Amino acid sequence: MSDLKLTAVKKSFAKTEIIKGVDLDIKDGEFIVFVGPSGCGKSTLLRTIAGLEDLSAGAIEIGGKMVNNIDAAKRGIAMVFQSYALYPHKSVYDNMAFGLKMNGIDKEESAKRIQHAAEILQLDQLLDRKPKQLSGGQRQRVAIGRAIVREPDVFLFDEPLSNLDAELRVEMRVQLTRLHRRLNATMIYVTHDQVEAMTMADRIVVLKDGRIEQVGSPLELYKQPRNKFVAGFLGSPKMNFIDAVITQCDCQHTQITLPGGVSLSVPKYSLVAQVGDKISLGIRPNDLIALDDSQSTDKDFDIQIDVSEHLGGQTIAYGSYADQSLIIELDKDFALKDQHQIAVKLPVEHCHLFASDGLSFTAAQ
Amino acid sequence: MNPLQQTAAMTATAPKVNFSMLRLSRSFLFYAALVLCLTFFITPVLWMVATAFKEPGEYVSSTPSFWPSSLTLEHFQALINDGFLKRLGNTVIVAFGATAASIMLGFMAAYALVRYQFPARLDIAFLLLVLIVKLMPPIVVAIPLYGLLKDIGLLDSLFGLVLVYQLYTLPFCIWMLLGFVRDVPLEIEEAAALDNANILQRLWHIVLPLCKPGLVATSIFTLILCWNEFPFALLFLQKPSSFTLPLYISNFITENETFWGQLMGIGLLSSIPVLLFAGFIQKHLIRGFSMGLK
Lengths: 365, 294
Hints:
The complex is a heterodimer of chains A (365) and B (294).
Chain A: E1 4-13, E2 16-26, E3 31-35, H1 42-50, E4 57-62, E5 65-66, E6 77-80, H2 92-102, H3 107-120, H4 136-149, E7 154-158, H5 166-183, E8 186-191, H6 194-200, E9 203-208, E10 211-216, H7 218-223, H8 228-233, E11 240-249, E12 254-257, E13 263-266, E14 268-269, E15 278-283, E16 289-291, E17 301-310, E18 314-321, E19 324-331, E20 341-345, E21 352-354, E22 362-363
Parallel strand pairs in A: 3-8, 3-9, 6-7, 7-8
Antiparallel strand pairs in A: 1-2, 1-4, 4-5, 9-10, 11-12, 11-15, 12-13, 14-22, 15-21, 16-20, 17-18, 17-20, 18-19
Helix pairs in contact in A: 2-3, 2-4, 3-4
Chain B: H1 3-52, H2 74-81, H3 84-115, H4 122-135, H5 138-151, H6 158-182, H7 186-194, H8 199-210, H9 212-228, H10 231-236, H11 245-250, H12 260-281
Helix pairs in contact in B: 1-12, 2-12, 3-6, 3-9, 4-6, 6-9, 7-8, 9-12
């Protein structure tokens, strides 16, 4: 069993509290991704789980056993560092063998495990090389190999792909997902890249300022973000937010008015919302419906476009409506008008509402 | 070629000639300066080597020559008969012993200063304090050291001198090694800690090999410092049989005569072990093990 439980975990450096009480249950074999902006404490939390940082308060259990006071090496974890942290003076083979030697595993068994890991990661031909003779991707695979041979209960990855170029990152992302399926081990992966989080995770943990904002499957977080931060952080391009004022509300719908005077009835509600409250309407760029001339009578408002990016399969257009920046995703065949003004419709079923404190309104049943 | 093209061609070729002339004269000046510098530094060494092989009368003649008219090994013979090898042995023991001790302690001190957190900036205070030992004139520390060595019965012993040299070179070693230890990425050590390596195993298997260039450079300098040290040896060694080479050399400059042949012979012979040591370990000076991986 390699489930992991964090209870009220806190971590401070001197007087600065970095992790402000984290509770989390991670199931055996799960691929969990910690995601959040720089400085949110995700790497610190990972290092605390690894035992590289002491806990200030709370408890960490791995496989039902409290590990607060257990040395990092005895926790049954293996970690892949952002900088790979390979031993530069040792060959690839020795890099993988070092941990096994330190753990008293005999040479025969070591050789078997290293060979197995090398096969999985296609490192067979590189075993005699020194790290400086390897490319970034190969080094990364060695770092993963070093973790695999130890056969840990939990794998920890600290932004392992951030030093790779975009193409290699995509390739390694797929390889890591395959590896997780093959080993079926519990993995915790730290990243600030929400695309990595969305594509790899069984569950995503969104962190901000040392606290968990939301935990859930990628689609759950994408479709039902608990607050404005999560809504804005996940999804690419990021969600649009438009200021709005509540004009009417009941326990099923909220009637709002947008700055340009557009009125909408959104099937979301909040028990504490009141008429006159200033709120934010959130809509993802791909949910905004761009209308052509024949449909323009159905429009809610026009977006004045200033920049458009043609990506081949789609076009991302950046513009504004009533002094609010907006992004819209257009079909590749959509013809942008000369005056760069697009009539759009807001599908109310895809609109999110966020109160002034950032909390999301509940979807009507 | 029309006139316009001609002008263009001329302007294109004219500066080229100037540039190549300039480059040529620059490199000539550079090599001339290099030869001058080299001559300045190498002449005394050549003079030492030449004199060591000269007949006794030749170097005190009124018309001294740079190169010996006939080669002789009599100065070396005299030195060996006089117990040169014993003094060389003493110097090897003292210099290598003190270097080994200084490097080992300096490395551990540098590691502790880099990796551990000390309250109230004690690490900075310690670094400045050890530097003061090095900044003070040797005679200031010599007197208390003399008393100390006398009390523990190590006066006039090679081991005592090893301790003194170790003390004297330790600040240099700590300061030199500090930067090299700092260059070892913390994450590599953390990876080793996760691999179940304890502090000594981490030092031995990871940090030490990564600091090898620094250790080599520091040990060469420390060895030279100890090898040539004179004032402490003069104060703390009394028996001629315990003398180190710098003390032994001073015997050849007397009130009545300076034995140039033997003096230069010792100079030549005593340089060889340090040169061999430096030559043997200089290949480890190449930096870059721990660097360039991020």
